[in-house]
Amino acid sequence: MKYLLHLSFWILPLWITAWNIKPAADPFDDVVKALRAGNATELSRYFDNMIQITLLDQSNSYSKAQATMILKDFFSKNPVKSFQLIHEGGQDSRFGIGRMVTTNGTYRITFFLRQHGPDQYVLQEIRFEAQT
Length: 132
Known about the structure:
By secondary structure, the protein is of the alpha+beta class. The chain has one domain: Nuclear Transport Factor 2, Chain: A (Roll). It contains four helices and six strands. β5 (105-115) and β6 (121-131) form a beta hairpin.
């Protein structure tokens, strides 16, 4: 009986601690949250060294700093009302397709994350296409 009491004294705190451990943040979920918030700074945490941005009819590759400024400008002119993830897929490379409603219009958003190391993903491309 003493043995069980002693054993539970050591195991119970470990068991409780294990329930409180939060899993590592998922970059895909973080990108979706940043899009919902219209937060270019949070989004830029996942930018690759160069990122392809298609904004309406213009497409180009930008550095992290340039891309952040472009998206900050877009979000300041088009405050996000909502973002709904419609489809996601992939494993080594992941992608998401969503619908973003802003004060100035509705956009189809497509983004691509590439695995960059064992537990790291980088945002390689993001597209903003106007919907009618």
